[in-house]
């Protein structure tokens, strides 16, 4: 089991950028992902990273705008978000699973979750 603590959320104007951080305490050879959930909507997978960052995938809705990466020394997973849109407004969560080195954007395949960080994009 790992402990995940997100940070870096905030308010930004459309077209702006943010970088979210997920500090990982515990084993680091997990599959990590970022999810988001807007009020009244289901939790949506955004990006996944595995094999210590050698492999990544992102959802079509954020392709070419969001990038997931990790710093193996700091044991931190990042989500870089560029060209933000109003529809990107949501609570963003970091998640992890010790099994499965593959691209899974389904929340049911993750066992460990952070508390979330809010991202608000204004028009």
What this model shows, in words?
0% of the residues lie in helices and 51% in strands. The protein is globular, with a radius of gyration of 13 Å. The strands form two sheets. Strands 2, 4, 5, 6, 9, 10 and 11 form a seven-stranded mixed sheet that branches. A four-stranded antiparallel sheet has the order 1-3-8-7, with no helix packed on it. A hairpin with a 4-residue loop joins strand 5 and strand 6. With 123 residues, it is mostly beta strands.
What is the terminal separation in angstroms?
39 Å
Our Rg estimate from Cα atoms comes to 13 Å
Give the SSE string.
EEEEEEEEEEE
Low-confidence stretches: none
Describe the global form: globular
Number of β-strand runs: 11
* SS-derived structural category: mainly beta
Summarize the amount of helix as a percent range.
Answer: under 10%
Task: Assess the beta-strand content as a share of residues.
Answer: over 45%
Mean pLDDT over all positions: 95
- How does the major sheet shape up? 7 strands, mixed
Q: Count of helices?
A: 0
In a nutshell, what does this entry contain?
The protein has 123 residues and is mostly beta strands. It is built from no helices and 11 strands. The strands form 2 sheets. Strands 2, 4, 5, 6, 9, 10 and 11 form a 7-stranded mixed β-sheet that branches.
What is the element layout, followed by pairings?
Blueprint: E1 3-7, E2 10-13, E3 18-25, E4 31-37, E5 44-50, E6 55-58, E7 66-71, E8 76-81, E9 90-97, E10 112-113, E11 117-122
């Amino acid at each position: 089991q790992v402990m995940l603590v997100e940070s870096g959320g905030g308010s930004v104007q459309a077209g702006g950028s943010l970088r979210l951080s997920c500090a990982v305490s515990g084993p680091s050879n997990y599959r990590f992902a970022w999810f988001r959930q807007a009020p009244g909507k289901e939790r949506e997978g955004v990006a996944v990273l595995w094999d210590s960052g050698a492999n990544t995938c992102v959802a079509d809705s954020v392709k070419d705008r969001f990038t997931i990466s990790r710093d193996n020394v700091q044991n931190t997973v990042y989500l870089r978000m560029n060209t933000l849109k109003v529809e990107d407004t949501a609570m963003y969560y970091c998640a992890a699973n010790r099994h499965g080195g593959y691209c899974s954007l389904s929340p049911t395949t993750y066992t460990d979750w952070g508390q979330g960080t809010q991202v608000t994009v204004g028009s």
